[in-house]
Amino acid sequence: MVKVDAGGGDWLALAVLAQYRMATTEQMHRVIAPGVRIEQTRRRLAKLRNEGLIDRITLPQAGRTRVWFATQYGVQVASEWPELREWPPPKLIADPTAARLRAGHALAVTETGLAFLQDARHRGDVCRPLDWIPEVYHALGGGEAVIPDALLYYRSCGDGGSMLRAFVEVDRATMGPERLAAKLGAYARLHAYVPTPIGRPRPNFGLQPLEEDWRRRYVLFPRLLFVLDGTGPTGIATRIQALRAATRALALSSFLRDVPVLAAPLTDLLRNGPSASVWHLIHVPDQDHKVGWMQSRHP
Q: Pfam families, from UniProt (predicted)?
């Protein structure tokens, strides 16, 4: 087995690809080594490919852009590292054909994660490359699950260094506004979901009361961020209206009282940074002003 130096550049490159699913050469450079020449990143990726840990495809429609992903062997190696053991391994992108079919959405998710990572570097906050975790499985019982496009961990150095978490949904306008808005209901069910105890019911003598499943992972339920792409301003406005309409149907739910729900165009995130006032308040549908994503949980 090829040994990858833990903590070194090769380790980080493989860990990022195993966790992010896919990234272009330029995206990998901005994630793992923005302070060096991009040629060093290209050499590192070529080395890992020669060792069978990663592979690549070329997207001709994007100026022959090279897109990298971890091989089955690379995922096997990376899954042994403590930093990647907390979450189940990703669905493997088995071959170049599968990679091409998933590239558009996967690269948009990677670009969204980069926006948060670069913004944290600029602000002096803490958001490491592996603090962006795509496709984390959250069971709802009965075979159902909520799988956000990404889970974000972020520590703000202001306000006493608060730890923030967010579920991020990246929408590229491949589904209708109503189907996008329906995701709010799934997150509301996750917020209220209490697993059924295994076995026959018995008296609860001095036992802890049952609680929501998400509390095993999070101190607070992560805020919910919708990042909108793949359409112009009119399409963005339509999708925001659909999300707000869904919140009115959930107006009596504790979910909306406890969880900030925000939406912003990806173009605004890339232009101004996620911490800028580019986010539309979804959980407060009667307020049209924009805020930063790190706003108070109770506006």
A: Replic_Relax
* Alpha carbon 133 to its chain's center: 5
Query: Which pTM was predicted?
Result: 0.90
Contacts of 169 (CB under 8 A, 6+ apart): 148, 149, 180, 183, 224, 225, 226, 227
Q: What is the amino acid identity at position 46?
A: A
Same domain membership, residue 127 and residue 170: yes
Q: Rounded to whole angstroms, how far apart are CA atoms 213 and 203?
A: 21
Q: What end-to-end distance do the CA atoms of the chain give, in Å?
A: 53
Do 151 and 58 belong together in one domain? no
Q: Is residue 110 part of a domain?
A: no
pLDDT in tens, 21-73: 999 999 999 999 998 999 999 999 999 999 999 999 988 766 678 999 999 89
Residue 298 has pLDDT above 80, yes or no: no
Q: Which CA distances in Å does 107 have to 76, 126, 130?
A: 22, 23, 16
Give the DSSP H or E segment for 109. Answer: helix 96-123
Map residue 68 onto helix, strand or coil. strand
Print the domain residue range for 31: 9-94
On average, the pLDDT of the chain sits at 86
- Euclidean distance between CA atoms 127 and 162, whole angstroms: 12
In whole angstroms, give the CA distance from residue 30 to residue 8: 16
Same-domain status, 164 and 83: no
